Amino acid sequence: VQLQACGGGLVQAGGSLRLSCAASGRTFTNWGFGWFRQAPGKEREFVARITWNLGTPVYADSVKGRFTISRDKAKNTVDLQMNSLKSEDTAVYYCATGPTVGQWHYNYWGQGTLVTVSS
Question: What is the pLDDT of residues 85-97, one digit of tens each?
């Protein structure tokens, strides 16, 4: 399984960015995808996740109402639309995937894409 994340960049506070994660290497039935982030000097934290089968999303409280995760089965991509960005959203963002039978597992990780929000 390979994950390629892109879409990061520099944006002003209040702006928007769309991250995309291209997945390959297998079919993702009964798998899920998650976005995580790691800010400088902080631990990696969960941002959002989505089931591949039904597209059911879950969000961290810190991004609820501002971020939207979606998946495109035809393109094998998982996107993260980020609106109303804040300086505290600055981080390297990673996509991850794994099976969700029983409980979620994130066995595969992408390389990360940097999001910088200037205030």
Answer: 999 999 999 999 9
Measured in degrees and rounded to the nearest 5, phi and psi for residue 89 equal: -85, -5
For residues 111 and 51, give the distance between their C-alpha atoms in angstroms, rounded to a whole number.
Answer: 21
pLDDT of 101 > 90? The answer is no
- 64-91, pLDDT tens digit by residue? 999 999 999 999 999 999 999 999 999 9
Confirm if 84 and 54 have CB atoms less than 8 A apart. no
The secondary structure of residue 88, as a DSSP letter, is G
At a CB cut-off of 8 Å and minimum separation 6, what does 71 contact? Answer: 33, 50, 52, 55, 77, 78, 79
Q: Return the bridge partners of 91, or none.
A: 115
Q: Is the dihedral of CA 54, 19, 37, 105 positive or negative?
A: positive
Burial class for 23, CB neighbours closer than 10 Å (0-12, 13-18, 19+) = buried
